[in-house]
Amino acid sequence: MKSRAGILVFFFLINFPSYGESFRTLIAGVHRVSLSQPQGVTLPLSYISSSIIHIDGDTRFFRGIQLELTSPRTFLSYRGTLAAALYGNLNRVPGIGIAVLEGRRLGFDPIPARIQTVYEVPLIVEHGFRTSPFATVLTDVVELSSFPLLFRLMPDVNNIPDAVERMVFNLNVRPILSNEGAVRINFRYPDNLRGRPYTVLLNGISIENPGEERVLREGEHSLIVLSEDFRNHSSRFVVERAKVLDLTIELQDPTPFLIFEGPENARVYLNDVFIPNPRVLRPVEPGLHEVRFQVGDFTVIRPLNVQRGRTYRVAMSIDLDIMETE
Questions:
Q1: Which of 63, 96, 106, 201 holds its CA 20 to 30 A away from the CA of 211?
Q2: What does the alpha-carbon distance between residue 117 and residue 229 come to, in Å, rounded to a whole number?
Q3: What is the pLDDT of residue 320?
Q4: Count of C-beta atoms within a 10 Å radius of residue 203
Q5: How is residue 229 annotated by DSSP?
Q6: Furthest-apart CA pair in the chain: how many Å?
Q7: In this predicted model, what pLDDT tens digit does every residue of 26-82 receive, in sequence order?
Q8: Which one, of 54, 14, 56, 17, lies nearest residue 36 by Cα?
Q9: Which letter does DSSP use for residue 146 in this model?
Q10: What is the three-state SS of 282-313?
Q11: Three-state secondary structure readout of 74-100
């Protein structure tokens, strides 16, 4: 067993009023928290070692970070011997190995006699974390400028049992995500209609600058595009947690179209003008029109009111009624 003097030399704390604490520790590993690794990274720690915690990439969807410390089963008999401490605003970013550092202590908690201990570190004011039997809120809100953080195991008694000195703990660090994602809406236009105005309704609310990226709650959302110069568009899309959806909307020319269907020998007329290829989609002006199908001596004439942005299928069908009489 180490002597009390040896332990005090190794873990002696010097107070610096303007900065926090100065301490010596063994940097055993580096945790990098990012959206690309939502399951986190696990590294081993001993009773004298620490881990540096970085946050990489986009942090908009972070509510906080979770520190899950897994203790060996034999630690259950040594409650009160070790504590967990978290530091920020380090005076430098150390490499792997023994380092003498200065930093501001953000949180401190004696490690309970349990296999798994979960700590939550909030990064936003409205984090919603609460200390419970399942997790401990280790700090107040930590600003991103405080990173990198240092998580440290340290003795909480004067004499550490030899068994505790040989124990290996595992620390997993992962992001705690909000229930939000984002959408980027990209609009494509017909070449002859570029620059024409339109209105975008997102979940029924008109939005300005619709091409800007927007943070939304995860789940299904509705999008409607209204315009005098394009066909009206209506669709639904799903935003996933902590992901950015690239949504492309093809705005279409509002010119209405007609397509005709009928018997092979039918002659089709639109406003008394013969249509040589009636099964081909063709543009038409909005307004009232007259359609005529002629099969031999049989003729059918119908009015057709055409509206902007619509496609009409005009079909002639010949039915046969069979009736029973006495």
A1: 63
A2: 60
A3: 67
A4: 12
A5: S
A6: 119
A7: 999 999 999 999 999 999 999 999 999 999 999 999 999 999 999 999 999 998 899
A8: 56
A9: G
A10: EECCCEEEEEEEEECCEEEEEEEEECCCCEEE
A11: HHHHCCCCEEEEEEECCCCCCCCEEEE
